[in-house]
Amino acid sequence: MQQRLRNDDKKALGEVYLSYKVAFVNYAIRYNIDNDTILDIYQEAIIAMHQNFVIKQTVLQNSTVKTYLFGIGKHKIYDYLKANKKMFAITDASSNEITEINIEDTAPTERQQLLALNFEKLGESCKEILKLFYYRGFSIKDIVFHTHYKDENTVKSHKSRCLKKLTTFIHEN
After folding, report:
1. Which terminus of the chain faces fewer neighbouring Cβ atoms within 10 Å, N or C?
2. According to DSSP H, which parts of 7-34 are helical?
3. 69-109 pLDDT, tens per residue?
4. In this protein, which residues make up the domain named RNA polymerase sigma-70 region (predicted)?
5. pTM confidence score
Protein backbone atom coordinates (compact mmCIF):
# COMPACT_ATOMS: atom_id res chain seq x y z
CA MET A 1 0.00 0.00 0.00
CA GLN A 2 2.81 2.41 0.88
CA GLN A 3 4.40 2.03 -2.53
CA ARG A 4 1.07 2.66 -4.23
CA LEU A 5 0.62 5.82 -2.14
CA ARG A 6 4.16 7.00 -2.97
CA ASN A 7 3.33 6.45 -6.66
CA ASP A 8 0.34 8.81 -6.28
CA ASP A 9 -2.16 6.00 -6.87
CA LYS A 10 -5.56 7.71 -6.37
CA LYS A 11 -7.31 4.35 -6.04
CA ALA A 12 -5.02 3.42 -3.12
CA LEU A 13 -5.72 6.78 -1.51
CA GLY A 14 -9.46 6.16 -1.88
CA GLU A 15 -9.08 2.72 -0.30
CA VAL A 16 -7.23 4.19 2.68
CA TYR A 17 -9.83 6.95 3.01
CA LEU A 18 -12.75 4.51 3.09
CA SER A 19 -11.00 1.85 5.17
CA TYR A 20 -10.22 4.08 8.15
CA LYS A 21 -12.94 6.74 8.04
CA VAL A 22 -15.35 5.07 10.50
CA ALA A 23 -12.54 4.12 12.90
CA PHE A 24 -11.22 7.69 12.86
CA VAL A 25 -14.66 9.18 13.50
CA ASN A 26 -15.14 6.77 16.43
CA TYR A 27 -11.69 7.71 17.74
CA ALA A 28 -12.33 11.47 17.42
CA ILE A 29 -15.77 11.44 19.06
CA ARG A 30 -14.17 11.27 22.52
CA TYR A 31 -12.97 14.86 22.04
CA ASN A 32 -16.55 16.22 21.90
CA ILE A 33 -16.10 17.63 18.40
CA ASP A 34 -19.07 17.82 16.06
CA ASN A 35 -19.25 15.29 13.22
CA ASP A 36 -18.69 17.81 10.40
CA THR A 37 -15.50 19.06 12.07
CA ILE A 38 -14.29 15.49 12.62
CA LEU A 39 -14.77 14.76 8.93
CA ASP A 40 -12.92 17.98 7.99
CA ILE A 41 -10.03 16.99 10.26
CA TYR A 42 -10.00 13.50 8.76
CA GLN A 43 -9.83 14.91 5.25
CA GLU A 44 -7.00 17.24 6.28
CA ALA A 45 -5.14 14.25 7.75
CA ILE A 46 -5.67 12.26 4.53
CA ILE A 47 -4.33 15.16 2.45
CA ALA A 48 -1.30 15.59 4.73
CA MET A 49 -0.58 11.85 4.64
CA HIS A 50 -0.93 11.82 0.84
CA GLN A 51 1.44 14.75 0.47
CA ASN A 52 3.97 13.09 2.78
CA PHE A 53 3.92 9.92 0.69
CA VAL A 54 3.96 11.60 -2.72
CA ILE A 55 6.22 14.62 -2.11
CA LYS A 56 8.46 13.45 0.72
CA GLN A 57 8.34 9.78 -0.36
CA THR A 58 7.73 8.77 3.28
CA VAL A 59 8.59 5.17 4.14
CA LEU A 60 7.00 3.72 7.27
CA GLN A 61 9.42 1.49 9.16
CA ASN A 62 7.70 0.83 12.49
CA SER A 63 4.04 1.61 11.94
CA THR A 64 1.11 0.88 9.69
CA VAL A 65 -0.57 3.32 7.31
CA LYS A 66 -3.49 3.44 9.77
CA THR A 67 -1.28 4.32 12.73
CA TYR A 68 0.52 6.96 10.68
CA LEU A 69 -2.78 8.48 9.51
CA PHE A 70 -4.23 8.47 13.03
CA GLY A 71 -1.07 10.12 14.37
CA ILE A 72 -1.49 12.95 11.87
CA GLY A 73 -5.20 13.15 12.70
CA LYS A 74 -4.54 13.22 16.45
CA HIS A 75 -2.24 16.21 16.05
CA LYS A 76 -4.80 17.97 13.88
CA ILE A 77 -7.45 17.33 16.56
CA TYR A 78 -5.17 18.80 19.23
CA ASP A 79 -4.47 21.81 17.02
CA TYR A 80 -8.22 22.31 16.54
CA LEU A 81 -8.92 22.00 20.28
CA LYS A 82 -6.10 24.39 21.18
CA ALA A 83 -7.25 26.91 18.58
CA ASN A 84 -10.77 26.75 19.98
CA LYS A 85 -9.50 26.93 23.57
CA LYS A 86 -10.96 23.56 24.46
CA MET A 87 -7.64 21.98 25.37
CA PHE A 88 -4.19 22.89 26.56
CA ALA A 89 -1.02 20.92 27.16
CA ILE A 90 1.10 20.56 30.28
CA THR A 91 4.65 19.25 30.03
CA ASP A 92 6.08 17.37 33.02
CA ALA A 93 9.64 18.66 33.34
CA SER A 94 10.94 15.50 35.04
CA SER A 95 9.74 13.06 32.38
CA ASN A 96 9.14 15.35 29.37
CA GLU A 97 5.69 13.78 29.03
CA ILE A 98 2.94 15.97 27.60
CA THR A 99 -0.52 15.74 29.10
CA GLU A 100 -3.44 17.27 27.24
CA ILE A 101 -6.24 18.64 29.38
CA ASN A 102 -9.71 19.20 27.98
CA ILE A 103 -11.20 22.34 29.51
CA GLU A 104 -14.58 22.06 27.86
CA ASP A 105 -17.50 22.64 30.20
CA THR A 106 -19.60 19.71 29.03
CA ALA A 107 -20.39 17.15 31.71
CA PRO A 108 -19.82 13.49 30.91
CA THR A 109 -22.88 11.41 30.11
CA GLU A 110 -24.13 8.80 32.57
CA ARG A 111 -22.66 6.09 30.34
CA GLN A 112 -19.27 7.84 30.27
CA GLN A 113 -19.32 8.20 34.06
CA LEU A 114 -20.13 4.50 34.47
CA LEU A 115 -17.32 3.55 32.10
CA ALA A 116 -14.82 5.83 33.88
CA LEU A 117 -15.80 4.53 37.31
CA ASN A 118 -15.41 0.90 36.28
CA PHE A 119 -12.26 1.57 34.24
CA GLU A 120 -10.58 2.68 37.48
CA LYS A 121 -11.27 -0.76 38.97
CA LEU A 122 -8.99 -2.38 36.36
CA GLY A 123 -5.35 -3.14 37.03
CA GLU A 124 -2.63 -0.93 35.59
CA SER A 125 -1.73 -3.30 32.75
CA CYS A 126 -5.37 -3.43 31.62
CA LYS A 127 -5.67 0.34 31.78
CA GLU A 128 -2.48 0.72 29.74
CA ILE A 129 -3.43 -1.69 26.97
CA LEU A 130 -6.98 -0.36 26.62
CA LYS A 131 -5.76 3.26 26.54
CA LEU A 132 -3.18 2.43 23.89
CA PHE A 133 -5.69 0.60 21.72
CA TYR A 134 -8.85 2.69 22.12
CA TYR A 135 -7.65 6.13 23.17
CA ARG A 136 -4.40 6.43 21.26
CA GLY A 137 -5.49 4.28 18.31
CA PHE A 138 -2.48 1.93 18.37
CA SER A 139 -2.71 -1.29 16.40
CA ILE A 140 -1.91 -4.59 18.13
CA LYS A 141 1.44 -4.60 16.33
CA ASP A 142 2.20 -1.05 17.58
CA ILE A 143 1.38 -2.05 21.15
CA VAL A 144 3.90 -4.90 20.94
CA PHE A 145 6.50 -2.48 19.58
CA HIS A 146 5.93 0.17 22.29
CA THR A 147 5.50 -2.09 25.34
CA HIS A 148 6.95 -5.12 27.08
CA TYR A 149 4.55 -7.65 25.47
CA LYS A 150 6.35 -10.43 23.60
CA ASP A 151 4.00 -10.85 20.61
CA GLU A 152 0.68 -9.91 19.03
CA ASN A 153 -1.17 -12.97 20.39
CA THR A 154 -0.26 -11.99 23.95
CA VAL A 155 -1.59 -8.47 23.39
CA LYS A 156 -4.81 -9.76 21.81
CA SER A 157 -5.43 -12.17 24.69
CA HIS A 158 -4.68 -9.58 27.35
CA LYS A 159 -6.87 -6.95 25.66
CA SER A 160 -9.71 -9.45 25.38
CA ARG A 161 -9.47 -10.40 29.08
CA CYS A 162 -9.40 -6.73 30.08
CA LEU A 163 -12.49 -5.93 28.00
CA LYS A 164 -14.36 -8.89 29.50
CA LYS A 165 -13.40 -7.73 32.98
CA LEU A 166 -14.53 -4.16 32.25
CA THR A 167 -17.81 -5.41 30.77
CA THR A 168 -18.41 -7.56 33.85
CA PHE A 169 -17.79 -4.57 36.16
CA ILE A 170 -20.23 -2.42 34.16
CA HIS A 171 -22.98 -5.06 34.17
CA GLU A 172 -22.60 -5.56 37.94
CA ASN A 173 -23.65 -1.94 38.52
Report:
1. C
2. 10-28
3. 999 999 899 888 877 765 544 444 444 444 454 544 455 67
4. 17-85
5. 0.52
